[in-house]
Amino acid sequence: MTEATVQARPGGRSARVRVAVHRAVGELLAEEPAEALTIPAIAARAGVHATTVYRRWGSVAQLLGDVAISRFSGDVVVPDTGSLADDLERWMGDVATDLADPDVLALMRATIGSGPDGGSACTADRHAQLGAIIERERARGGKVPSVERAIDTLLGPLYYRAIFGGEPASSEWARGLVATLLAAM
Questions:
Q1: Label partner for 183 (CA 20 to 30 A): which of 36, 79, 84, 92?
Q2: Which residues contact residue 127 at a Cβ distance below 8 angstroms, ignoring those fewer than 6 apart?
Q3: Within 13 Å and on the Cβ side, how many CA atoms surround 85?
Q4: pLDDT for residue 51
């Protein structure tokens, strides 16, 4: 085969397997408790051999982390309204809406319960987004809280209510947390 006829496969088998396995995890979490997730069950649902899943992810915990990172990366847009308060209110409303999705909650609870790194898989992108909002306001010359203070004041109560509470927080309630953060500055 000459060099001119060799073409890269867009996606390829690896991408198809990843999509199928991620989809299988979501479907199984919607149907069964997280404790019922096993590599063989996930592989069977995805239509792949269990050794394929073991080779790529190694464990259910690693697979859940990968699914969570994939799911929680880039799905909430960081607003840029020109105002810290408006950016935070809009962003918190979007995060609260996302956390109200039963499929999102099932994935979060399963991922957090899967091991010590589970929480990071569910929150790392949110921390980065919040940091970007704060850094942008700092660059504009505005007064800003520390990222850690914002995480504790905004995301702490929101995630606690979503994961451990009977009902997730409303967007309005979540936006009210912004007033609490800004009043404390």
A1: 79
A2: 147, 151, 155
A3: 6
A4: 95
Q: What 3-state DSSP class applies to 168?
A: coil
pLDDT attached to residue 168: 80
Q: What is the largest CA-CA distance in the chain?
A: 68
As a whole number of angstroms, the distance between CA 4 and CA 2 comes to 5
Reduce the DSSP state of residue 74 to 3 states and report it.
coil
More confident residue, 168 or 111: 111
Which residue type, as a one-letter code, is found at position 64?
Answer: L
The answer to whether the beta carbons of residues 153 and 178 sit under 8 Å apart is no
Query: In the numeric block, which tokens belong to residue 121?
Result: 């898989």
Q: For every residue of 37-89, which 3-state class applies, written as one string?
A: CCHHHHHHHHCCCHHHHHHHHCCHHHHHHHHHHHHHCCCCCCCCCCCHHHHHH
